[in-house]
Amino acid sequence: MDKNDCKYRKYIELLKKELVPAMGCTEPIAIAYGAARAREVLGGLPAHTKIAVSRNIVKNVKSVVIPNTNGLKGIDAAAAAGIVAGRADKELEVISAVPGDKKREIKEYLAANTIEVETQEGDLLFDIQIEMCKGEDQVKLRITRSHTNIVYIEKNGKVLLENSCEEAKEKEDGVDLLTVKDIVDFAECADLEELAAYIEPQIQCNYAIAQEGIRGTYGANIGKVLLNSQEDTVQNRAKAMAAAGSDARMSGCELPVVILTGSGNQGIAAAVPVIVYAEEMGSSREELIRAVAVSDLITIHQRSRIGKLSAYCGAVNAGCASGTGIAYLQGGRFPEIAHTIVNSLAVVSGMICDGAKPSCAAKIAVSVEAGILGYHMYLQGQEFRGGDGIVTKGVDETIYNVGQLGKDGMRETDKKIVDIMMGCVSKE
Question: Taking every annotated instance into account, which residue ranges of this chain make up the domain Serine dehydratase-like alpha subunit (predicted)?
């Protein structure tokens, strides 16, 4: 791929856009960010706050620990953290630096003030609407489609910012140029330092939280379980370290993660297994950076067909993509990578997303296992062929099929998952 090609610049821009640091699970952090920004506009702590969120936000906030809150969970807690201690200028690191007295104040604020939460219906899977009042002053703020995309701010009836949801949708476009062959070509020719600017923070941050997950006690400790129950192989360490990063992150670990397609778990799953293999192989810095770029862009390629929020588990996309990064490290190029992704997606596509929580770590481990299996199948001359279930001829065509499954086919599944999680399903 020529560096003057529009595709080349687009791929660089995609990495720049998607690889951003975040402290904590991104949906509650988006609420904290919106609440912090609304408080700034209001000019003080609100006496009353009302938050309306789409059902998928409920799903991804309900069970995850919010960092720097002394173990709090929930939409109201995320909003309180942003109101009391948030710095909106830090965006997805809005509550990354909270002193001990502020942590106590978050809990006290929750007890003394009203934060109403309601679920809203509609076509938008990602929608957060916040209303705050203090005395005679009132602020309204809305975030749609992505975690920091504020589309509306109003104070005392005066509109300060307004972007239509359709304009927000257009900002998400630009992934239509992605193909697996072009991704491999791009990784081969991309300027190393330009790549490193976005990939190296991901390598450093996400491997650090994986190491912390192994050292500490978080969630169900899936990473430790894998290390203690299976043989000490590079394949098992790759699964375990990726899972450990999620163990820590889902349980409120106060370390940053570089997210991918809006998800810290996907940022971890796409990079950490590749890092483990690179360490085992003694790979160079350049080889690791280019291999992680392959994994990242193939994750983006898959998720762009599904969307950031779905009933389809994003760990599948990133875990399977990690197998392509491992293949690249070992000298694989388009044939190896294409077969790896098709083989792995044939195994784990359809795993549901039932929100952010400790079991995400186990789903990452299973998906990384599928990615590695997909590559090993190719090495041994084995493959799943077009017509085997949703697999069709051509890797991009198979990715398209999986996208249709995740975006359209699982729409009703998504609604049912949220109903179950909210206790809205009758046992009769």
Answer: 166-418
Q: Mean pLDDT over residues 158-184, rounded?
A: 75
Please report the pLDDT score of residue 3 as a whole number.
80
Beta partners for residue 128, in sequence order = 53, 143
**Axis-axis angle for helices 395-404, 180-189 (nearest 10):** 120
C-beta neighbour count of 366 within 10 angstroms: 18
Buried b / exposed e along 278-317 (16+ C-beta atoms within 10 A): beeeebeeebbbbbbbbbbbbbbbbbbbbbbbbbbbbbbb
Q: Domains in the chain, please, with CATH?
A: 23-171 (3.30.1330), 180-421 (1.10.4100)
DSSP classification of residue 187: H
pLDDT in tens, 88-115: 999 999 999 999 999 999 999 999 998 9
Average pLDDT value over all residues in the chain: 93
Average pLDDT over residues 6-33: 94
- 52 forms beta bridges with 118, 129
| DSSP character at residue 282 | T
- Which H/E stretch holds residue 139? strand 137-144
Cα–Cα distance, 110 to 132 (Å, whole number): 14
